[in-house]
């Protein structure tokens, strides 16, 4: 059954954590829901936590890249955090380098990247 | 549970029908179970399960559904997991093209088949237009 993952709001950022093995429809739902929530909350950052994800295949990989592109168009930055080493090794061999996707080792560093972005933005304004 | 004293034994075959996208999730889970039973390393498990995910999705999306049969196999040099994906869909007219990185007849990234081939040790694709497609992969312990 397809489901909708909970999206948490922390200040100006949205956080979604991939905890279960997702079917493809749930992955697509997440893409749509995140775009909607970015606009609804004028979010500045999106963090996708894949610490619990045992694999990232081409479908999920494409979703991560698409979310990054969509949120960029909506003036928000995406950071994927918590990728397991075995997942990273497998993704490269699969042929997915996820070049356009910002990554961080963990949630803390991901939040730090978003905070830097926010600071740079404030300095520009 | 290898039969002692026998070489190239096959364990019992376990079958997962692939009819819905939930079945793709179940196929991944069965692949994982077999990989753990077989004693594949974490990286090897991850590669096998990722390949299984790609192939199961192709079976569903392009083959119109089918099945995955999986088993633990052994040879003198060690054990492995063999997964067999079959469907009775339209088949693949040009396998060289289908196996090329980045080629998709649909909206995919065209990485499923070529990527799955890189992620496993043995990869055999048999297909006939109008008859269907069968992909067999094996990941061996190293
Ligand atoms: N079981 C199948 N039956 C019929 N055609 C298939 C089957 N599997 C793959 N193909 C064909 O081979 C092409 C390449 O498959 P591949 O998995 O590499 O890419 P994709 O599924 O299009 O994209 P991706 O997997 O990267 O999302 C498909 O677009 C499809 O035309
Ligand atoms: Mg595919």
From TrEMBL, chain A:
PROSITE patterns: STAS (PS50801). Residues 14-114 form the STAS domain. It holds the Pfam family STAS. This is STAS domain-containing protein. It comes from Catenulispora pinistramenti.
Automatic annotation (TrEMBL), chain B:
It comes from the Bacteria. Residues 45-137 form the Histidine kinase/HSP90-like ATPase domain. CDD domains: HATPase_RsbT-like. Signal peptide: none annotated. This is Anti-sigma regulatory factor.
């Amino acid at each position: 059954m397809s489901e909708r993952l909970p999206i948490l709001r922390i200040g100006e950022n949205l956080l979604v954590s991939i905890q279960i093995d997702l079917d493809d429809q749930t992955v697509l739902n997440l893409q749509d829901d995140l775009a909607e929530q970015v606009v609804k909350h004028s979010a500045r950052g999106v963090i996708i936590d894949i610490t619990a994800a045992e694999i990232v295949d081409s479908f999920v990989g494409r979703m991560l890249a698409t979310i990054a592109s969509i949120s960029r168009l909506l003036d928000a930055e995406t950071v994927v955090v918590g990728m397991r080493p075995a997942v990273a090794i497998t993704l490269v061999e699969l042929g997915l380098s996820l070049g356009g996707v910002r990554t961080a080792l963990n949630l803390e560093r991901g939040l730090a990247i978003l905070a830097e972005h926010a600071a740079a933005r404030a300095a520009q304004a | 549970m290898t039969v002692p004293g026998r070489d190239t034994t096959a364990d019992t075959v376990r079958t997962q029908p692939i009819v819905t996208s939930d079945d793709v999730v179940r196929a991944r889970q069965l692949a994982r179970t077999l990989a753990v039973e077989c004693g594949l390393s974490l990286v090897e498990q991850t590669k096998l399960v990722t390949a299984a995910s790609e192939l199961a999705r192709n079976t569903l999306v392009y083959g119109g559904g089918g099945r995955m049969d999986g088993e633990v196999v052994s040879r003198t040099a060690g054990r492995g997991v063999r997964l067999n994906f079959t469907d009775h869909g339209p088949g693949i007219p040009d396998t060289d093209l289908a196996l090329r990185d980045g080629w998709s007849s649909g909206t995919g990234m065209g990485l499923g088949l070529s990527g799955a081939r890189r992620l496993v040790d043995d990869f055999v694709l048999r297909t006939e237009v109008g008859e269907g497609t069968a992909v067999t992969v094996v990941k061996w312990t190293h």
